[in-house]
Amino acid sequence: MPHYRSIDEVSLPACWLTIGVFDGIHRGHQKILNQLTQGAHTAGLPAVVLTFDPHPARVLGGRDIKLLTTPDERAETLLSSGVDVVITMLFNQEVAALNAQEFMQHLHRQIGVQRLLIGYDFALGRGREGNAVLLTKIGQELGYSLEVVDAVGDESGVISSSAIRKLISVGDIAEANQLLGHPYRLTGPVIHGDGRGRKINIPTANLQIPAEKIIPANGVYACQAQVGTETHLAVTNVGVRPTFLPQGQSASVETHILNFQRELYGEIIKLDFIRRLRDEIKFPSVEALIEQIHRDIEQTHEILSTQ
Description:
The protein is of the alpha/beta class. The protein has helices spanning 27-42, 56-61, 71-80, 93-96, 100-111, 132-142, 161-169, 173-180, 196-199, 286-304, and strands at 3-4, 15-19, 47-53, 85-90, 113-119, 145-149, 153-154, 157-158, 184-191, 205-207, 219-227, 230-239, 252-257, 268-278.
């Protein structure tokens, strides 16, 4: 299941294609992907997703956007959902300067686009000129057809990656997961911490999270931790551990994996956030902290035993 880093690495006689950042691959994205894969495979053609890195808004507007998914996470999810080819294109000023005609001509030469699926508000090319009307016209010249997929929304409005980022930034994991259609995930290797958890008989694994990923608001969360092929319940603290450390420390992500004893340094953990349990607070004593952690563990059991 190939993941390419350039359109020039790919050569296909024909395909169905969709284009977008697809950050988080939320329920709106999933609707497009379902229609893409089902249609392409019915036609006997590969389903291709073209996405971008870095996020175009970072290049065009200089915004420091924290991502819901890294390019590798995005590709892994897309390929596991039935997409046949993922192309992560480097987005830079040179790409941004291409007009819609130039961009689509290059794509058509490389991968033989027969059908292009886009979201309701999609546009590409210099100045976002390539809206549905222009892309339809270009398709008539190049020989592809266009399909616009309606938005997915709920009582709060149209589902978007930016809305989900806001929810995660304030710790509303339950609502973010509802819009995503799956748990929000952090992935990273286990690195050495200060060993305080082991000293109080509640060992934790400290995760090194990619700098471009958005981290949930400081607090304590019920999670599921995937270690290799095994999945375990976990209680995760995001924050600065104020009971032990002075103010001004940078936030860390450390997780206590329930009923798990094996050494984990260097291993990759995939941490799915399910529910926020409480704020991170400073306790008057280590004993009070330990008591609260045991209550967090009990609550995590109660929440996740029904998942």
